[in-house]
TrEMBL record:
InterPro entries on file: Acyl_CoA_acyltransferase, GNAT_dom, NAA60-like
Protein species of origin: Drosophila erecta (Fruit fly)
Reaction catalysed by this enzyme: N-terminal L-methionyl-[transmembrane protein] + acetyl-CoA = N-terminal N(alpha)-acetyl-L-methionyl-[transmembrane protein] + CoA + H(+); L-lysyl-[protein] + acetyl-CoA = N(6)-acetyl-L-lysyl-[protein] + CoA + H(+)
UniProt KW keywords: Acyltransferase, Chromatin regulator, Chromosome partition, Membrane, Transferase, Transmembrane, Transmembrane helix
MF annotations from Gene Ontology: histone acetyltransferase activity; protein N-terminal-methionine acetyltransferase activity
Limits of the N-acetyltransferase domain: 34-218
Protein name: N-alpha-acetyltransferase 60
UniProt xrefs under Pfam families: Acetyltransf_1
Family the entry assigns: Belongs to the acetyltransferase family. NAA60 subfamily.
Length: 255
């Protein structure tokens, strides 16, 4: 697993130059050259510019203010030579507070007391893609949500455009599974676009059971019961044979 360093924005990362270098002109030699840190209010302008380049959705200014200042969000930046080259923004919330279209992620019995993690954004600078930056950011979130303190978080989910094949490939490779199709979920430049919901279950979480799951469960119970009955019948047969042998021996019916 790649190693990384968490540091504060206002102190230079280890072995770094104090002069910021345009990341488009600096090759990423190793994932170990990347540091991770949480966003701070001073990042607002830079993050806003990056998101406008990366994503087709126009986020309001208040959103950038929230993710760079509120502890409500897990907002982590990947930094290389003092420049942000990737970021992930997620929110942890009670399952009962998710939107209607996401209510089927967990079983009702589990959802009453469970939390979920929702990935709002995950992006990497175009010149540094396919270098493991996205995986590094996602791993940091997964590690955060699979600690003992976060055991109540039973799933991580996200929405993506149905046409965003690179994102779909990335998440499926990271064991996210397609949960639902959301017609006209996005409004991009005045046009409705379809979306997918992808889910990764953690900390013992699982999706609601389907009819097929119930059939498989009861079939397993029947097989287990049948095996148990066969075992008990064998034991009873052995006991009967033992008693029969004892009786014959007692009355001298055998030599």
């Amino acid at each position: 697993m790649a190693q990384f360093t968490l540091y504060n924005k206002h102190s230079a990362p280890p072995n770094s130059d104090s002069t910021r270098v345009d990341c488009e002109h600096v090759p990423l030699c190793s994932i170990n050259d990347v540091q991770l840190r949480f966003l701070v209010p001073d990042d607002l302008t830079e993050v806003r510019q990056l998101c406008q380049e990366w994503f087709p959705i126009d986020y309001p200014l208040s959103w950038y203010e929230d993710i760079t200042s509120s502890t409500r969000f897990f907002a982590l930046a990947a930094v290389y030579n003092l420049a942000i080259i990737g970021l992930i923004v997620a929110e942890i919330k009670p399952y009962r507070n998710v939107n209607k279209e996401d209510k089927g992620i967990l079983p009702d019995s589990m959802g009453r007391s469970a939390d979920v993690g929702y990935i709002l954004s995950l992006g990497v600078h175009r010149s540094h893609r396919r270098n493991g930056i996205g995986s590094l950011l996602l791993d940091a979130l997964m590690n955060h949500l699979t600690t003992a303190e976060r055991h109540s978080v039973k799933a991580i989910f996200l929405h993506t455009l149905t046409t965003n094949q690179p994102a779909i490939f990335f998440y499926e490779k990271r064991r996210f599974t397609l949960h639902s199709f959301l017609p006209y979920y996005y409004n991009i430049r005045g046009k409705g676009k379809d979306g997918f919901t992808y889910v990764n279950y953690i900390n013992g979480g699982h999706p609601p059971w389907t009819l097929l799951d119930h059939i498989k469960h009861y079939a397993s119970k029947v097989r287990h019961t049948s095996s148990l009955c066969a075992w008990m019948a064998g034991r009873v047969q052995q006991v009967v044979r033992w008693l029969y042998h004892k009786l014959l021996t007692r009355f001298n019916f055998i030599e």
